[in-house]
User: What shape does this take?
Amino acid sequence: MAMSAETTGAGRVQRRHGATRVLSLRHGPGDDGPVAAALRQHLGIAVPPRPGQWMGADPYLVWCRPSEWLLVGHEGVDPAAWAALAADLRAGRHAAAVAVDVSAGFVTYELQGADIDARLARVIDAASIARRAGEGGRARLAEVAVVQLRLAPGRLWLLVDRAVEAWVGEWLDTVA
Assistant: This one.
């Protein structure tokens, strides 16, 4: 996936170009069975992530709230498996489970550098920053909801609503 540097400084902020695929996997309170079964069958993901965590290796499964996980994919997405998962969880097939393709609504920024936590603490509540690899989930950056995935100590992805991409980009410029 191509990336272009948006900003340089102590670290880097890059906007990832190319296809970011995102499925919102929603289920009824306490009833993640149909979603978990579909993930296991089509992608081999056996255990859903716990709160504040993500799992997988492209695609990534991110815990967002008790009734929603996001499945995020870039280069490693198998189109046939993705389509089969979406079809298995299409609206109306299960009483309390559905997959919604929200890919068109997101862009991905990648932040790199040893000082990511210090830079992000200027625009995200410090207690909300995903600090260890495998942590992630929703956070607020400059009063805008984002989804973060800490990939490694010096590497973090932010999924940003495309409608506020320019706004978030300006805020990220202030921390680069």
Q: What stands out?
A: The chain is about 20% helix and 40% strand. The radius of gyration is 16 Å.
